[in-house]
Amino acid sequence: MDIHEIDWNEVWKDLHEQNLSRRRKEECASIWESRESALEFLERSNKNPQRVAKVFSDLGVGPASRVLDVGAGPGTLAVPLASLCAHVTAVEPAAGMVEVMKEFAQKEGVENLEIVSKRWEDIDPAELSGPYDVVFASYSLGMPDIRAAVEKMCKLATKRVCLYWFLGSSPWEQWMIDLWPALHGQEYRSGPKADVLFHVLYDMGIYPNMETLQLSYTRTFPDFDAAVENFKREYHVETDAQEKILREYLSSVLKEEGGEFVLSGNSMRVKLWWEVDQCA
Ligand SMILES: C[S@@+](CC[C@H](N)C(=O)[O-])C[C@H]1O[C@@H](n2cnc3c(N)ncnc32)[C@H](O)[C@@H]1O
C-alpha cells in the first residue's frame, strides 16, 4: 500500500460520518444543544481550573491579544480569556451553550467577547472581526471537512493556531463501545482521532508541535437512578429491555463515593500547534 495515496481528509470525513450515524445522524454540535448539558459541562470544567490555566499559558496571549475560540462551548475558556485579552471572538453553534456563555460573560462582567452562533463550516471569514493573533479550537473539531476547517483558521490567524484533540478511546467512548452492541445491535464507531488529524495537517504542509496530555474525566450523579436517566437520554434508550442492559452495566462501573455515584477514567489528549508562517 502506498501511504501517499491515502486521502486523510476523506478518512476523517468517513470516521466523522460513521460516528454521527451511531449517534442517530445528529450533527456534532446538536449533542450540545440543551441548556442542561451546557450547564453540566461548565460545572465540570470549573472543577478543573488547571486545564483552563494550562490553555492560557499554552496560547501565549496577553492584554493586547486578539483571540478566536472555535467551538467555545459555554465559554469555559473564552470568558476567562476575554478578561485577560483585548478581544475574544467565540464561535459556537449550540443554542444551549450560547445561552450559558452569555450568562457566564455577564456574571464575570466581560464586555469584550463577541459570540457568533454558527457552525465553523458556515462562517465566512469576512463576517468575523479578524484577524486574530491566536486561533484555537479546544475539543471542538466536529467538522466533516477538517482540511477546510483548518485552512479557515490559518486564514484568520496572524501568529499561531492551536488545536486540542483526542488520542485513543476516551472513557466515555469505551462505555459506548461496551454498550452499543447490546443496546442497538451494532458496534459503536468512534470519531476520528489525532492520528488522522496529524496526517491531514502533514498533507497540508503543516508540521505541528505536539504535546501529549492526560486528563481525568469524572461524571457525578446524586443517585443511581439519576445516572440511569442521564444515560437513557445520551444513549437513546427507549425500551425496558434496553434499560435493563443499561442498569446492569452502570451497576458494574459506577462507584459510590460519599453518597454520590461516580463514573471516572483518564483520557489521553494532544495539543497541536504551529506558527502561521507554515500555512500555505
Ligand atoms: C467539548 S465542547 C468544548 C468546549 C470548549 N472549547 C472547551 O474546551 O471547554 C465542544 C464544543 O464544540 C462545538 N462544536 C462542535 N462541532 C462544531 C462545529 N462544526 N463548529 C463549531 N463548533 C462546534 C460544540 O457545539 C461544543 O460546544
UniProtKB/TrEMBL annotation:
InterPro entries: CFA/CMAS (IPR050723), Methyltransf_25 (IPR041698), SAM-dependent_MTases_sf (IPR029063). SUPFAM superfamilies: S-adenosyl-L-methionine-dependent methyltransferases. It holds the Pfam family Methyltransf_25. Residues 67-156 form the Methyltransferase domain. PANTHER family: CYCLOPROPANE-FATTY-ACYL-PHOSPHOLIPID SYNTHASE, FATTY ACID C-METHYL TRANSFERASE. This is Methyltransferase domain-containing protein. It comes from Methanosarcina siciliae T4/M.
